[in-house]
Amino acid sequence: GILHNWNDEESVKLLKKCKEAIPSKDEGGKVIIIDMAIENQSQDKESMETQLCFDILMVSLFRGKERSVDDWKKLFLAAGFSHYKITPILGVRSLIEAYP
């Protein structure tokens, strides 16, 4: 999934529904998200510019935002997830896994 086009309140609601729909962590349950995790990316000028442009776009079009690693942590805790993992991939994108 992608959550950058949703505000925090709606993202927590979506994550809670996902958590209800998947099996436990012991049974292999997890939610997979491909999105930005701002602090997890290289801080070169081009990456920062790209991240800022996407953030402005998400705020202006959808009332969403690009999230930092701390922002993701807050969302997952608010939705009741016990653990998460963020792995940088594909330029400014990250593979984000949340476990019940």
TrEMBL record:
A Pfam cross-reference name: Methyltransf_2
Domain O-methyltransferase C-terminal: 2-82
Superkingdom of origin: Eukaryota
InterPro entries documented for this protein: COMT-like, COMT_C, SAM-dependent_MTases_sf
S-adenosyl-L-methionine is among the record's keywords: yes
Gene Ontology molecular function terms on file: O-methyltransferase activity
Name by which UniProt lists this protein: O-methyltransferase C-terminal domain-containing protein
UniProt GO BP: methylation
Organism field: Citrus sinensis (Sweet orange)
TM spans (from-to): none
Keywords: Methyltransferase, S-adenosyl-L-methionine, Transferase
